[in-house]
Amino acid sequence: MNNNASHRIQHRLAVVDSEVPNFQGIKNGIYISDINGKIGHVFYFDQGSFKVKSEQKESTGSTGSVNCFSLKNIIIDEQRGIFIGSKPISNSPGSIVIGDESGEVLIVGSDNILLGRNIGANMTEGNDVISLGANTLRESSAIGNSISIGAGSMGKCGKTEMNIGIGKDTLSKINDAYNIAIGIEAGKEMTGPLINHNICIGRGAMKEAQASAINIISLGTHSCESMQGNNFQSIYFGDKAAQFLNSKVISAGNIGLGSQVLSEAHDVSDSICMGTLTGKNISGVRLVVLGNNAGVDCSGSLTEEILIGHKAGNQRIYTESKNVFLGSMAGFSGAGVEGIGIGVLAGSQSVGDFNISLGSQAGQHIRGDQGLFIGNNAGQSSSGSFNLCLGGKAGQGLIGSYNLWLGSNEKMGDILDQTVLLGHDAFGKGRKGVIIGHSAGSSSVGFINGDVLIGHSAGMGQHYSDNCLTGKGMVLIGDSAGKGDKENPNDLNSSDLVCIGDSAGSSSEQQYHRAVMIGNHAGSFGGFVEDSVLVGHSVGIGMTGSSNICVGAKSGTNLKGNRNILIGTNSGDRTEKGELNDTLVIGNEKPVLLGDLQKGNLVIGAPSILPRWTEGENTLGFVSTLRPREMKGVDGLMYVSDGELEFLGKSGVSCLSFPQKFVHRGNVNGISFKIDIGKDGISLLNVKIIPRNKINYLLSAEIVMSVLDGVISIGPVNSDKWKISVVNDMISFKSDTIVEGILYLEIIGEQIVQKL
Questions:
Q1: Closest by Cα among 200, 266, 195 to 238
Q2: Other Cβ atoms closer than 10 A to 161
């Protein structure tokens, strides 16, 4: 410390017993000088009062006015405390009371600090009280362990303890304990049967709360102002947070953050709300509401709702709904229970229960229950229940229920019911249809009722039913299967059509009815086809006709005709040939079996389809061939040789005209045959064995054979060289000698012989 500073300090305080200039008539005072050592203030006693005078001087050094104040009744007493300006209290050890009429009626108390006018004017009991400010604790009767700072703080509280009020009129009527109020009018006029363990910080926080309030933390201007009802264990942060909260039943366990969060709400419990105006006028339990204006002005009681995003869940009608809405304006207005909407405007204005909408505007404006909509605008403006729509704009404008729609689609206004629709730009309308594949059903007209379209462009450009209730019976499976004319679909008129395979049944001129086309390109490029079956790769290409059956690759190519059966690769190829009708063709390239279906004739081994082979009916024909020399892999062969029907077996060659005649060449000694015992009848059998070298060794017999009621009768046999045996329904004629020659059998009478 330098000398100049020490000099100044030494001359700033002085006690003198004589008058001082400019303070005439004042003796024995304490004078305080200014920095220059000139007297500026004097403290003195006058007629029992402590007084102060000060001299104000202008910069010119002229004498200014003299100010004066005085304090009455200054008492410092070890038993009663320190009292300045108030009447002394008989017993208040450790107390400091400064202020006019402060603590004057205190009867019992200790360790109090009261600084200000009219503090505790009616307080008869007080302990460990700190009160600063005019009119604090003014109407309070008994106070303990409390702090009130600010004019009017705790001014009308009656009996209370363990409270802290800092700010003008804080906790003005508090009658409970363990509360903290900081801010002008914080906790002002707050009353209720139970108000304890609360913290309110901010101007007007919990002001005029008429409620039971326990363990409430209220931070923000006017937060929890005018709160009513029963409110417990909650935190509210923000300007006007929980303002006018009315809990007719209970509000507990809440966290509210944001300006006006939960303002005007009622009966909200176990909830988290964050954002400006979030949860305004809301009611519910176990809620998560995050975002500016989220959950505002909802109708009904919310239960276990999650609303996240700007205006999420606003103005919605709730009935214990348990919804989840995430995204700006997700779930905005509408009604329904246990729904999920994620994305901007997802589920917005939706009405229905158990719906899930994922994607921007997904499920917006829906009307229905238990739908799943995933993708941008998926299910937007749809109507119906139990729908599944996945993909951008999938199911947009859908009308109907029980539909599966997978794939993005630009088209709107589809009437679908119980339909499966999968694929980008897959399209259709109707009931109970299956539409699967990129562009499947696109560019088509009519209603797809019960039809099945599976594959890229399957059923594209097709004309379906004009009736919304009846179907065309279309089953189109494969890339471009059943594809019609996308430019002029109304020109087509197909029905009861099954097409399976790449481009099967694809034709811009098709008029297909009651047809089955299976195989890649089967039935493609055709015209009028009905009552036909086409099976095989490229079968029936360019076909026109009815009642045809074509099986085999490229069979029936360019066929023009009716009632044909073509089986085999390239069978019935009619390229640049005439019409074919009533024909059976079996074989690859050329016929193995050729039939006239109109006359009932059949030829084995025909060289070609034409010319027709017979004028008869119901005949079996054989094309003449060389007699086989041997058999491989079979036990017998039947063929025509030299105009005769022959049978080659292990025992030799037989000439057949059975059942009337039977001739067998080779080593023979007899014959066996089976009788039809279920059929009554009688026949005469002429049996002969003619030896090749022993002309005289002829065995001949005539046998009468009958069947009556399952009993076989034989006789007579006019030769003793035959041995006849009957076992069940088998009859054998045997000789003792095997000879090389011919066995001849002729049957005359009724047909009772089943098998030789």
A1: 200
A2: 18
Contact 95, 110 (CB under 8 A): yes
3-state class (DSSP) for residue 662: strand
Distance between CA 114 and CA 94 in Å, rounded?
Answer: 12
Cβ within 8 Å of residue 612, ≥6 positions away: 596
Please give the structure tokens belonging to residue 638. Answer: 């039947």
- What DSSP state is assigned to residue 8? H
The rounded distance, in Å, linking the Cα atoms of 312 and 445 is 40
Pairing assessment for the beta strands 661-675 and 730-749 based on DSSP bridges: antiparallel
Provide the residue type at 22 as one letter: N
H-helix or E-strand spanning residue 386:
none
Q: What is the pTM for the complete model shown? A: 0.65
Q: Where are the beta strands (DSSP E) in 465-542?
A: 475-477, 495-500, 511-518, 528-535
Nearest to 35 by CA among 15, 9, 59, 71: 9
Alpha carbons within 13 A on the beta-carbon side of 205: 31
Cα–Cα distance between 295 and 376 in angstroms, integer?
A: 24
591 exposed, middle or buried (CB, 10 Å; 0-12, 13-18, 19+)?
Answer: buried
Per residue in 157-198, pLDDT (tens digit) is 888 889 999 999 999 998 899 999 999 999 999 988 899 999
Question: Which amino acid belongs to residue 174?
Answer: I
Token pair belonging to 399: 């009308």
Q: How confident is the model at residue 498 (pLDDT cuts 50, 70, 90)?
A: very high
Label residue 247 exposed, middle or buried (CB < 10 Å: 0-12, 13-18, 19+). buried
Q: What is the pLDDT of residues 467-492, one digit of tens each?
A: 878 888 999 999 999 998 888 888 88
* DSSP strands (E only) in 413-510: 416-417, 420-422, 430-431, 434-436, 452-454, 475-477, 495-500
CB 235 within 8 A of CB 253: no
* CB 368 within 8 Å of CB 385: yes
Residue type, 313: G
Q: 272 φ, ψ to 5°?
A: -120, 120
Span 38-51, pLDDT tens digits: 556 666 666 655 56
Q: Where are the domains of the chain?
A: 3-71, 75-280, 658-755
All residues at 6 or more sequence positions from 2 whose CB lies less than 8 Å from its CB, including other chains: none
658-755 topology per CATH: Immunoglobulin-like (2.60.40)
Q: Tell me the one-letter amino acid at 615.
A: E
